[in-house]
Structure formats: C-alpha cells, structure tokens
Write a structure and sequence with these properties.
By secondary structure, the protein is α+β, with helices and mostly antiparallel strands. About 30% of the residues lie in helices and about 25% in strands.
C-alpha cells in the first residue's frame, strides 16, 4: 500500500498518461519498461530485477494491473495501470483500515499531538500514546460515536499492523502505551518497502527451544528485525495442510487448554494462513500458565473449528470473545 501511494506521484512526472496501442486509447497508463527505467535511475531499486519484483508485488496485491489482464509483470513495452486510476481498486476491510490509519496519523501528528515521549515500566517510548487517550481523541474529533466503537476501531488498527503495544499486548481502553508501527510521513526507498513486506512478521517476545532448528522441525528460528536485535520469532519451514495435521499417524498430539485472560490480554501471538500456529508466547502471560507453547497449531477456538481460517480471523475471534478462551491445539511430537 505504501509503495503504491508513493508511486502515484508518477502522475507529475508524465510517466502515467493516456496512450494509444493498436488503434485504441488506454487512459492513465504507464509502460512497464519506462517505469523500471525510472525506478533504477532514481535509485528506488538497485537493479531491474528488483524493480520487476516490486511491480509484481504491487500486482499481486491489486495495486496495479495489466490493461489486457496479463497476470505477470514483464520488463517490456507493455501497458499497466494503477487500479485507483480506473476505479477497480478493491476497497476491502484491510485497505479501508490502512487508509483510515494513514489519515489518522496525519491528524494526530498536528499541533497538540498526543504522540509524546512517555515511560512505561521504566522504559521510554518515543511518540507513544495511552490507549484511553487515543479513544478520547477519536470521540472529541468525531471519528467514533462511542467509547465502544472507538475501542473497536483501535483494535482494528492493531490487528492490521498500524499500531502496536511495545510488549505485544492487545489494545485496551487504559493507560497502556501504544505506538504507530508505520511512520507515514517518512519516505522510504521502494526496495526497502518490498523487503518490509516480505518479512511481514512481529518482532515480539518468543519462547523457543533448540529443537526449533532441527532439520525435521516444521519451524525455523530466525532473528527478528533488520537491525539485528536480540529478539527471535518462529516461522514455518514449510506449509502444512489441514489434512496433514488430521491424518492418522501424523506426528502431532492434540491438546485442549483453557486460557483465562487478564487485563493485558492472553499473551500469545498466532500467525499463518490456514492452519495458523502459535508464533510467540509471553513467558509471564495467562497463555504460558495454561501451557500454550510455540509450534502448536490452532484447531478450535471455544469449540469452533478454525483450521481453515487465517490468523487475522482467529485473532479477531479471541479478542472479541469472552475472557476465557478454550483452545484445541495440535502440538508436534518430540
């Protein structure tokens, strides 16, 4: 999304314009080869291959498309168009939350901003804000009609990676500190945005063991964050299907755990696209006390099958349900 927004300024550089091809006029188009020339010459990408990857990423996420519906980007004299320019951009929930979050960041960052240097548990956080103050701001500025609605909007921002708590707690109408994950005002090279999109992971606390790097393990341990921090997260070494998890004789054991949430939430992070898995567990959280561990796949939440749901849907089910969550998990055999 950010890469697409930055590239829309190409309207000013006359790369996007009406073009004729085979006696037909295509409005608001760009030539792939010309755009790749521009990306390399303006040092947005280091080489043409990276530029092609960036544009393919935009196509895969419905930011741009070929005028005659070709499925791939080619470094050639082919016509493509931004979906915003022809009204075909899919304004789904994720896009709407992103656009609203971007606008909100601009409004909050003006005079009398609630984004300030604050301290929580002895740690200072730049440009942070208490959850209750953000909801107050939404109410005062007509962005939400009630505190409940404000809480729902803030949780949507957190769910879609716009804001976060330093320790990855869920969003609450309280004095807990949160920060925007994205500085919408800082312009970055487009290749940098491509790398961020490929990571797409949390940099939170994770509990792991040496077995996680075993060649037969379905998970692989990686250092989190491009700055080389000390954190770690777990991601899948390969994709597992629901059928593999449920097959007779599969190397998994089923566990049913009850997690009693506290004022800070439940204390675990799920990731994955059907089935999802536990990526991180806060060592001092209710989830850890109940026996939730990384490397467990989530089968049911409060009796409802979630094997075929992605992590965003599963997270929403937990966050909008009761404080007590019953989880059916599949844990790899040691």
């Amino acid at each position: 999304m950010i890469a697409g927004e930055q590239l829309l300024r190409l309207h000013d550089g006359k790369l996007i314009k009406d073009r004729r091809y085979h006696l037909r006029t295509y409005p608001n188009c760009f030539v792939a080869q010309e755009l790749i020339d521009w990306l390399v010459s303006h040092k947005e990408t280091p080489d043409r291959a990276t530029a092609v990857c960036l544009l393919q990423h935009l196509m895969d996420h419905d930011i741009i498309h070929h005028c005659d519906k070709r499925p791939v980007i080619k470094d050639a004299k082919l016509l493509y168009r931004f979906r915003k320019d022809d009204g075909t951009f899919p304004f789904n929930t994720e896009v709407k939350v992103f656009i609203w979050g971007q606008r909100l960041y601009g409004l909050i960052g003006d005079k009398n901003s609630i984004l300030k240097l604050r301290e929580e548990h002895g740690v200072a956080y730049q440009r942070s804000f208490p959850g209750c103050q953000l909801i107050d701001w939404l109410l005062q500025n007509g962005e939400a009609e009630s505190r409940r609605r404000g809480l729902e909007l803030c949780r949507a921002l957190q769910e879609h990676g716009i804001i976060q708590h330093a320790k990855k707690h869920n969003f609450f109408d309280s004095g807990l500190l949160y920060q925007f994950c994205i500085n919408f005002r800082r312009r970055r090279r487009l290749s940098e945005l491509l790398n961020e999109g490929e990571q797409d992971v949390d940099e939170g606390v994770a509990v792991w063991t040496q077995e996680d790097n075993h060649p037969e393990s379905p998970f692989v341990l990686r250092k989190s964050g491009p700055q080389g921090g000390n954190g770690a997260f777990l991601s899948l070494r390969r994709t597992f299907t629901c059928e593999e998890l449920l097959a007779p004789g599969s190397p998994f054991i089923k566990k049913v755990l009850t997690v009693m949430g506290d004022v800070l939430g439940w204390g675990f992070v799920v990731r994955g696209q059907a089935p999802c898995y536990v990526q991180a567990v806060d060592p001092g959280s209710p989830a850890a006390a109940a026996g939730v561990k990384v490397r467990q796949f989530v089968c049911q939440v409060n009796g409802q099958c979630v094997l075929y749901l992605d992590y965003r849907t599963v997270s929403r089910m937990v966050m909008t349900g009761t404080r007590t969550v019953v989880l059916d998990l599949m844990e790899p055999l040691e």
